[in-house]
């Protein structure tokens, strides 16, 4: 073996792969990884198939098809009254995670500090470290995972380059309030701090609560990369398509990296999605669709011995078992697979220091019969 110096020496296989493999091994119901077990709209499949038959099978333009970028510009204008130039400020990517990595890669240099809120999506910290940046994690605690803005203020230094926010938040299901957004605006005023806003669950908020995109706030929009996902939007996570929006001066740098990473992404899917999104009902009804699943899952889980934490957005429900057992959450997650036949994600995996609050995350983007069967098994705990 030829010795190499690992750039991520402390990183192993992601918890999602580990739990999904265990679920397969024990024939467990997989509520761990965040993907639906139902099909996306047949109309969308038909539109993409038609685009293949019509010959849209070669490279797309590097930033993405103009028709799709135009639809997205119209969408964000309608939803958030925000203007993005489809030619210079929107880029189609190979999923949300690629967009996140590219946004980081184009502006994070060795020694730059990036503030993240934990529990955090597990790609943030490794990507920052890979680029030589320094992760400044802010640990939030259940049940509400509220942000202490005075503490955040104390973390700022001359080296603070970026703040990453995830709204609605994975894994907690929390959403940012107007109060939080105003606090962020005050925090970054008169600084050169950039914002990376991971908004892949933007259309999944509950109880008539509006999504607070950074695009709504000119003070934030002017310094922000916004990342979104067609996988979450269209119930098709395996397609790995997403997009990034940013002001022209930031998008120029984003595209410099993007062109030498993936260059461009799946052409026929871009054509089909552009035609599909012409109907706003394809995304405006998502909150109601997922609220029905959330309400059903919470109602059933309320009959188990777990205690439910708030779920205001995303398609994840967190529960605590601290009143039942002292097991580490990683051990409890394995126990549920082996004894109940249900896979979850231990939330400590979303903390840099693996902080364990005895909380597990379940994905409820599943068929009703899947959720019913899973809860029936969990009742045995």
What would you note in describing this structure?
The protein is α/β, with parallel strands linked by helices and 381 residues long. It has two domains: 15-39 and 284-378, Aspartate Aminotransferase, domain 1 (Alpha-Beta Complex), CATH 3.90.1150.10; 43-279, 3-Layer(aba) Sandwich (Aspartate Aminotransferase, domain 2). It is built from 15 helices and 13 strands. It has helices at 15-25, 42-53, 66-80, 96-105, 124-130, 149-155, 178-188, 218-221, 230-234, 248-258, 267-276, 281-284, 286-301, 329-340, 368-378; strands at 29-30, 90-93, 113-118, 134-139, 160-166, 194-198, 224-229, 242-245, 307-308, 316-320, 342-343, 345-346, 359-363. The strands form three sheets. A seven-stranded mixed sheet has the order 2-8-7-6-5-3-4, with helices on both faces. A four-stranded antiparallel sheet has the order 9-10-13-12. It has a two-stranded parallel sheet with strand order 1-11. Helix 2 crosses helix 11 (267-276), helix 4 (96-105) crosses helix 10 (248-258) and helix 13 packs parallel to helix 15. The longest helix is centred in the last third of the chain and has 16 residues, at 286-301. The radius of gyration is 21 Å and the shape is globular. The N and C termini lie far apart (47 Å). The mean pLDDT is 96.
Report the CATH C-level class of the largest domain.
Alpha Beta
By CATH, the superfamily of the largest domain comes out as Type I PLP-dependent aspartate aminotransferase-like (Major domain)
Report the β-strand fraction as a percent range.
5-15%
Mean pLDDT: 96
Query: What structural class is derived from the secondary structure elements?
Result: alpha/beta
Corresponding CATH architecture of the largest domain: 3-Layer(aba) Sandwich
Number of domains: 2
Coarse morphology: globular
Can you count the helices? 15
CATH fold-level name of the largest domain = Aspartate Aminotransferase, domain 2
Question: What's the end-to-end separation, in Å?
Answer: 47 Å
| Lateral arrangement of strands in the main beta sheet | 2-8-7-6-5-3-4
How many E strands? 13
Low-confidence stretches: none
Helix content: 25-40%
Radius of gyration: 21 Å
Order of helices and strands: HEHHEHEHEHEHEHEHEHHHHEEHEEEH
Sketch the major β-sheet: 7 strands, mixed
Protein name: 2-keto-4-methylthiobutyrate aminotransferase
Pfam families: Aminotran_1_2 (PF00155)
Cofactor: pyridoxal 5'-phosphate
Keywords: Aminotransferase, Pyridoxal phosphate, Transferase
């Amino acid at each position: 073996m030829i010795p190499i110096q690992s750039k991520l020496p402390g990183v192993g296989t992601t918890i999602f792969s580990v739990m999904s493999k265990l679920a397969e091994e024990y024939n467990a119901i997989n509520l761990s990884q965040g993907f639906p077990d139902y099909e996306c709209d047949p109309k969308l499949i038909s539109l993409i198939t038609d685009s293949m038959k019509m010959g849209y099978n070669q490279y797309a333009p590097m930033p993405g098809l103009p028709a799709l970028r135009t639809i997205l510009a119209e969408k964000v204008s309608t939803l958030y009254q925000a203007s993005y130039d489809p030619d210079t400020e929107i880029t189609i990517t190979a999923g949300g995670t690629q967009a996140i990595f590219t946004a980081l890669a184009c502006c994070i240099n060795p020694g730059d500090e990036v503030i993240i809120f934990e529990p955090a999506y597990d790609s943030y910290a490794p990507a920052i470290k890979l680029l030589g940046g320094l992760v400044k994690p802010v640990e939030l605690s259940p049940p509400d995972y509220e942000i202490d803005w005075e503490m955040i203020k104390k973390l700022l230094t001359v080296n603070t380059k970026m703040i990453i926010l995830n709204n609605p938040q994975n894994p907690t299901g929390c959403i940012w309030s107007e109060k939080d957004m105003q606090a962020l605006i005050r925090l970054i005023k008169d600084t050169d701090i950039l914002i990376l806003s991971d908004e892949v669950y933007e259309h999944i908020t509950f109880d008539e609560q509006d999504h607070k995109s950074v695009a709504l706030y000119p003070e934030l929009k002017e310094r922000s990369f916004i990342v979104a996902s067609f996988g979450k939007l269209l119930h098709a996570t395996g397609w790995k398509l997403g997009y990034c929006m940013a002001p022209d001066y930031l998008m120029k740098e984003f595209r410099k990296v993007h062109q030498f990473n993936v260059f461009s992404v799946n052409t026929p899917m871009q054509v089909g999605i552009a035609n599909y999104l012409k109907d706003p009902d394809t995304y405006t009804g998502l909150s109601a669709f997922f609220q029905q699943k959330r309400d059903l899952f919470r109602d059933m889980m309320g009959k188990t011995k777990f205690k439910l934490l708030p779920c205001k957005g995303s398609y994840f429900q967190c529960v605590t078992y601290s009143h039942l057992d002292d097991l580490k959450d990683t051990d409890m997650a394995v126990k549920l697979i082996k004894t109940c036949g249900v896979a979850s994600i231990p939330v400590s995996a979303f903390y840099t220091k693996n902080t364990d609050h005895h909380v597990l995350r379940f994905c409820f983007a599943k068929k009703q019969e899947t959720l019913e069967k899973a809860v029936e098994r969990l009742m045995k705990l």
